[in-house]
Amino acid sequence: MAGKEPCPLIVVRPSRCIVDEKFLVLVQNLPPGLAVTVHALIHSEDDDFWEAFGHYISDDRGCVNVAKDASIGGSYDGVEPMGLLWSMKPIPGSRPGLRLRKKEVHTPLVVNISVYQGHMNERFKDTRALACAVAERWYMAPGVQRVGITTNGLKGTLFLPPGAGPFPGLLDLWGGGGGLVEYRSALLASHGYVSLALDYMTPKTSGNGTQHVGNDYFEAAFRLLQEHPQVCGDRIAMLGLSFGTSVALGMAVYSPVIKPKCLVSVSGSHVMPVNGSLSDVFAEIKKNAHNTRHDEENRIIWRDLLLPIPDDPSKKVDVGRIQCPVLLLVGEDDQNWPASESAEDMRQMMEKAGNSHLLTIASYPGTGHLIEPPYSPHIRASNFMVAQARTKVIVLWGGQTVPHSKAQEDAWQKTLVFLEDHLYGTKHRCPRPQN
């Protein structure tokens, strides 16, 4: 019809991509100078809703470009191309202690993006949107294969990049919460690594009660990667988060089988009884349970369980014997684990031993314990299942939203560059597959 104004439109590019890719959100066909709210909503697999929103004024062409225009209010301020994701919080009235984590990695994280007239902070569900769009964000790139692993008593999931390979391998160890967490391994496979997400914290059940896995469990997992036909057996890294770092460092130093090409530590520590099993480690930590603190909201702070960093060499991994490059990613506001103090002690130990040239530390102010892949919402505190007692508590992880989110993006890029340098590289026998 002649003279009819075009309807408002949201364009998301790309509308389907990997979760560590940026997207462009563009609103068009608005009246110039209109106050609008751009809103993002995720319906999680736990049936919770997460949202973020920014307040904008359309330009003289009736457009809002989230990548270039400044938000003047909402859940984030300023020019923040990915603020619609990293500033997400549970909607008002949600259950306490939530954490947004992808469980079914073979399906996308679906982000519903809408634009509303006016600067809104609530009642989005009850308000009609001017325009809507949907973005799919994937952990598994097209062609990545997901294979369940149950051989040799192992429990894990193997992710294979598309193509015949061979590819470098990676053993992915999460922290003390237990369970099988797959999304980081799926994302690493999307970047060309055969990644094994390993469940190692769930105690084995026997006639005599429960017992934790021994060192042979991790050695079996490492061998599985070494012997896989699509893996370069001499190009295998280890990635540990939190308690997973303690395991990775211990295995790298003391195991006659596990000889990683490089090692990435996220929010970890080298403090643990070096000659014991996992059960011995937890027994040692339990001795320091009296050091547990709570904040003003009664959230648990566990960082003091390993403090002060011991001088006794039997209480910490002898990182002076490390023979591979190590990347430490440290949040300086980590309230769960003494990552900063541990990193400094590791630096001193390696300097004294003459292998500090193998150590790289990336330390981030205002950053907490949960350093996730980029654009993931910052979670300052959340529910946590204590694997030993099978009881739920709310743990304070730390961090402030803006610096923590910036750190996640930088830390992930540093991780990818580190792995590329030490597992691919121009002189390595694992050439990067051609797309």
Automatic annotation (TrEMBL):
Q: Name one GO molecular function term.
A: fatty acyl-CoA hydrolase activity
Taking the record's annotation, the residue ranges forming a coiled coil are none
BAAT/Acyl-CoA thioester hydrolase C-terminal domain residues are: 216-424
> What is the name of this protein?
Acyl-CoA thioesterase 19
What residues does the Acyl-CoA thioester hydrolase/bile acid-CoA amino acid N-acetyltransferase domain cover? Answer: 20-150
Q: Which gene encodes it?
A: acot19
Q: Which SUPFAM superfamilies match?
A: alpha/beta-Hydrolases
Its taxonomic path starts at: Eukaryota, Metazoa, Chordata, Craniata, Vertebrata
Q: Which domain of life is it from?
A: Eukaryota
Q: Mind telling me which Gene3D superfamilies this protein's record contains?
A: Acyl-CoA thioester hydrolase/BAAT N-terminal domain (2.60.40.2240), alpha/beta hydrolase (3.40.50.1820)
Q: Which Pfam family name is an example for this entry?
A: Bile_Hydr_Trans
Q: Where is the active site?
A: 242 (charge relay system), 334 (charge relay system), 369 (charge relay system)
Biological process (GO) annotations?
acyl-CoA metabolic process; fatty acid metabolic process
Family named by the database record: Belongs to the C/M/P thioester hydrolase family.
Gene source species: Clupea harengus (Atlantic herring)
